[in-house]
User: Fold these one by one.
Assistant:
Number 1:
Amino acid sequence: MSPILNVALLGYGLAGRVFHAPLIAATPGLRLHTVVSSAPERVAEAHPQARVLADPEQAFADPDIDLVVIATPNDTHAPLALRALARGRHVVVDKPFALDVAQAREMIAAADAAGRVLSVFHNRRWDADFLSLRGLVEAGALGRIAELHSHFDRFRPQVPDRWRDRPGPGAGLWYDLGPHLVDQALQLFGAPLAVHADLGQQREGAQTVDYVHVQLRYAHQRVLLHAGSLVPGHGLRFAVHGSGGSWLKHGLDPQEDALRGGARPGGPDWGRDPRPGTLLRVHDDGSVHEQPTAAVAGDYRAYYAGLREAIIDGTPPPVSATEALRVMQVIETGIASNAQRREIAFG
């Protein structure tokens, strides 16, 4: 019988409460043992079996804890991960991995020295639409890919009073949604040749980046990553164009809304997108034929199931720290590109 891994979750804000806690609780072989939070009543209401602590050091020091999940503000990711690894715990860090490449390398070195698994929660690899896109690309259904347009737009005209929107290290949309967009692009096409980023502030009262438009240049492909905060009606998620046709996808994967609404992961039709996208195929005579894409279900639980196997059986983690480091290299290059207003070679 496989052992049960005791998990300590640090932070019970949006990431901890909506994503990590429900997914941990729904993954066989994992037990949400401890939550480090300043809101014990909130934790107890949803997870009465979990112990609530105020100090993360208590969780790090507890020999019963196998895995520490860090879902705290971005500027705390590296310090907390280093302390947990020093105590011999396996570690998951919510995206972004760190504030910069130097921190990410330090964390990887600490994990190697401790002989522990270090992974980053790039859950959007298990979005239904990305799984569909990856399948189409790998099957060659679109021919030779020329362009990928990847959007993660929102309409949030009011600037909220939260740490993500206040000036400071790790704040802003490039650190928030950028890692998702970048990680998906790297999974499809690998490292780019160059990065050209336009990071801006568009909303009245904005103090951090709330507009992202980034081009990743490859030898043949161009990948355009876009995230805006003043986009009320566009709805495009992916547009992919190749020598054999195009694929268009509107609307976001449904799992986040389901989790926000309190749905339990794994219920009936979990992760099934009602808008699976449209494939446009070019015939020999040049005519274009539309056909719906077969629905593929997304499932964020696959991340934690893979992580459990990595810890217990020594299999590769679902997201390696090396892959997450590459994402941080693109994030950092994008910041430099924006500051210098030019394309910067990558690598």
Note: The chain has a mean pLDDT of 96.
Number 2:
Amino acid sequence: MQYIIIIGAFQALVALWLLIVKEKKALSNDLFIFLLSAIAVHLTIKFVIFRFIPDESIRQQMNTFISVCYGPLIYLYTLTKTKKDFSLPQKWFIFIPLFVLMIAYFTISCVFIILNKVNHHLLDSYNNLSLGLIFTVNLYYPLKSILIIRKSNILNSDKSEYNVILRISSCILIMESLVIVSKALLQFYPESNEMVNLVLRSISYFILLIICLLIIRKNFSSGPANNEESNVQLKINNDDSDGKIIINTVDYDLKFKDIWHKLDDLVSKKQLFRDCDLTLDSLALKTEINKYQISEMLNSYKNKPFYRYINEYRIEYFKNNVELSIERNENINFLSLAYDAGFKSKSSFNRYFKEITGKTPSEYYKDLMKKNTLELTID
């Protein structure tokens, strides 16, 4: 089992390094980085315990707290792929079991070190608490993730995302089902406690290896289908006349000028930004432009991510409507105008408005009213 543990820890660290190198600065990528980090820490702790802790009760029975975050992380990843403008702080409370078990784990470890012996009553209490929390959390969140992706249209828009969520959730559920198998086997074969624990833990650690491979496969098989669409920013040519190597940067203006005019014209004239459920995939379908081209064009040519680009249009539309309402001396409902512009929630509207204009909506309105009053006074 030690070999499985050390191979899994090494694989998780390699996958973590590769993912960081290929990072796309997305929240979903950060969550996979956290998941791989958790797996690496989990397996490293287990290896240290099996290698250096002589007490058999700790080696075989003391649960590692870190596994309680596997279900929540895949759940959060699912939300980033199915919910627009998802904010991680909104779900901070799902990590409460992790903090509770972490405190309990290190407290009990310190007690055992100070006493220089294992208190089996304390160990059993911790194991019962940790087993109950880990089983409940890692059963609830993966099941919820599977239900969410089945109800959403993610399969139609991105099959790779659907598959990775489904498979990782299934792996976590299989690991938790081993708890039930373990309890059942120990009821019939209580004398084989050590062997049952050894076999089922080995299976659990092997499943963690599979999760690492799924993340690697997803992140390094996704992306543009061919080299022409990949985000390569340097070209190397050989000059036969003098044997020199010439390095040319990609001319983004030449590469994207026509496509940009087509995209921006459609977004503006058809007011595509007013669709509150607009995504990169749906924009690609509506404009008939490859989504990887849109992504590369926005990030490399216009230096702004997709939602920044769309929300700039929404805010400009909102501002125009506010000015028009003031001219007509109409009552202004900020939230109603924000929804009309394409925003889905008050919080996302306020956040993006402040980020893009540097003012809150009320500050903008007050400045606009002062400006109008000043102009009337001058006239």
Note: The longest strand covers residues 234-239.
